[in-house]
Structure formats: C-alpha cells, structure tokens
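F.,

This is the one I mentioned.
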C-alpha cells in the first residue's frame, strides 16, 4: 500500500485507483456511519476527489489510514452542518412519541439509545444532533449510534481523550437543552424537562 501512496503522490492515477479499490469499503462504512447509507456513496465520491487533491499532504504512508479516516470525519462533519442548515428544525411527533421522548430526556439517566426506538424519534433526534454547534452532534452520533469507543473517536477526530470526553458531556447538555426548547416551541409544555 505504501508504494501505491508514494506513486499516487507523484501523480500516478493507476496507483490511486488501486488505493481506491483497497480502501473503498472502509470509506463507505465510515460515511454510512456518519451520514447514513442513503448519502454514503455520494459522499464517498466527493471524499475520493478530495483525497486525490490532498494526497500530497500524507507525510508518512504508514499513517495513510489515519489520515484518510480524519479526512472522512471532517468531510462528513461539514456535510452534516450543511444538511442541518438546509433542513428546517421542526418535526411533528405524535403525542405518544412526545411523552416517551420527554420522559427519557427528563429522566437524565436515560441513555440516548432509548431515544432511537421509533422512526419519528430518530428523525427528531437526527435533526437536533445536526443542529448542534461544532462537532457535538457528530461526536454524540459516533459514540451512541456507531458504538465507537472513546479511543476510536479520539483517533478519528484527532481530539485528545480529555477534550473528547468534555465535548461529549457538553454535547449531551446541549442536546437536552435543544430538545427541551423543541418541546416548548411545539406547545408540549405539560411535560416538564429540568
């Protein structure tokens, strides 16, 4: 693989094609985890274009996988931000779904996995995660939805472990606040979220 990377850095398209063939599955799995399968193939195409234009930045071919994972992470983060700006933040939920979501958020000891029970809740949660500032939504998604460990997320994002843990903590607080505001906007005031 190292030989292909060096050759691709010199402009060899055949070597780059070999890299794509060997790493395409990894890129698709990562983008699907960050964006969903629906958008994974399109995102992967854009990512490979970025890889071709930036492959000269790889200083150590042995660290190519880490460099690629970081590039995928950053690209998906940017796509999620763009998607959040594009989508509205309003989602209509049934009264039963509101009650379930409100109880879960209000419990404060309820893991985020329980929020993923129904399609309506997943849609709301996905939009609220997308709307969180910075990389909070993507980090929460990686930890709770993709079941990645702190170490794995730290490697992918390039964040120190302590910073990552703090951002996950802050992200959970922001998500709770965002969901509480969403409940208030929708007139579901009878469900108290403190």
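My design for it:
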């Amino acid at each position: 693989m190292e030989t292909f990377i060096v050759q691709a850095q010199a402009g060899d398209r055949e070597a780059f094609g070999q890299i794509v063939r060997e790493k395409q599955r990894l890129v698709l799995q990562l983008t699907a985890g960050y964006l969903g399968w629906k958008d994974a193939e399109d995102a992967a195409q854009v990512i490979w274009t970025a890889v071709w234009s930036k492959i000269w930045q790889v200083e150590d071919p042995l660290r190519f996988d880490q460099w690629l994972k970081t590039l995928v992470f950053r690209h998906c983060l940017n796509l999620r931000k763009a998607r959040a700006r594009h989508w509205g933040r309003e989602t209509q939920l049934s009264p039963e779904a509101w009650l379930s979501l409100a109880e879960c958020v209000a419990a404060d000891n309820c893991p985020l996995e329980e929020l993923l029970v129904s399609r309506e809740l997943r849609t709301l949660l996905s939009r609220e995660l997308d709307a969180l500032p910075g990389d909070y939504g993507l980090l929460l998604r990686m930890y709770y939805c993709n079941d990645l460990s702190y170490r794995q997320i730290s490697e992918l994002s390039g964040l120190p472990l302590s910073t990552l843990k703090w951002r996950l903590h802050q992200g959970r607080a922001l998500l709770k606040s965002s969901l509480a505001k969403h409940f208030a906007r929708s007139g579901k005031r009878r469900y108290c979220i403190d």
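Residues 184 and 190 are 9 Å apart (CA to CA).

Talk soon.
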